[in-house]
Amino acid sequence: MISLNRVTRIFNSRDGDQVTALQDVSLEIGRNEFITLVGPSGCGKSTLLRIVAGLILPTAGRASIGGAAITEPRSETGIVFQAPTLLPWASVLDNVLFPLRMMHRIDSTSTDKAMALLKLVGLSGFESKSPRELSGGMQQRVAICRALVHDPDILLMDEPFGALDALTREEMTMELLRIWSERPKTVLFVTHSITEAVVLADRVVVMSPRPGRIQEIIEIGLPRPRSFETEATPEFHEASQHIRQLIFGTRHVGPGRAAA
Ligand SMILES: Nc1ncnc2c1ncn2[C@@H]1O[C@H](COP(=O)(O)OP(=O)(O)OP(=O)(O)O)[C@@H](O)[C@H]1O
């Protein structure tokens, strides 16, 4: 579905230096696969997502969807950023309907579709509220509904739960799994949370520090549907520990142990 073939992206910084954000990244993502991307800050995760979104182009290499090069944003791709970025003057319902309006795809079923999505994320009854009347977590749920309303086949999520409190974040993780199982799509999800990465993914892509390259791809064979109990299994701990070691190395800090 999504194919990255030796993708490199170089930015020209303001002081004239060149920053290689991604170098030779190759990745094949199958239809309806759930891929999470983890790695240290600045390793190019958002850059990779923006290339797949068609918001920026690779400097070298090829990024394609279904065989066609990605040269611009595509309507069948939904995007959720870290901040909900809702329209402050529009109601919750109008915010969710916004992509359909922009694409001139509003029809007699649109409101029902938006209401069903809001119900799915537990926001029935909030349709006519304004975004400022909602908590951060509720706003992010609205942003997720907005990204799903036109039933995109690809969903790109850049630390979508990063600004949420820990409890809401756990709840949203499970909610996303539920939405994905009810409406399967290809998901590319950037996170700083190893727990989140493992519990969500079919495969976790671990990236190395700048210039960002793929360090390792880890298959997560945990059975679905997954739940909070999944996080208590030995398989979950093993995968998480492996990723932690890839990112941090085998450092031990504490009494009687040398920091390495
Ligand atoms: N528009 C830009 N102009 C110049 N440099 C950029 C630009 N966008 C990203 N970079 C640089 O590219 C590198 C990768 O950035 P990117 O945002 O993709 O990393 P990231 O892994 O998503 O980081 P984080 O986890 O902190 O969000 C960084 O060094 C960043 O400073």
UniProtKB/TrEMBL annotation:
SMART domains: AAA. Keywords: ATP-binding, Nucleotide-binding, Transport. Pfam families: ABC_tran. Residues 2-234 form the ABC transporter domain. PROSITE patterns: ABC_TRANSPORTER_1, ABC_TRANSPORTER_2. Transmembrane segments: none annotated. The keyword Plastid does not apply. Coiled coil: none annotated. One of its GO terms (molecular function) is ATP binding. InterPro entries: AAA+_ATPase, ABC_transporter-like_ATP-bd, ABC_transporter-like_CS, ABC_transporter_ATP-bind. It comes from the Bacteria. The keyword Metal-binding does not apply. Belongs to the ABC transporter superfamily. This is ABC transporter ATP-binding protein. It comes from Reyranella humidisoli.
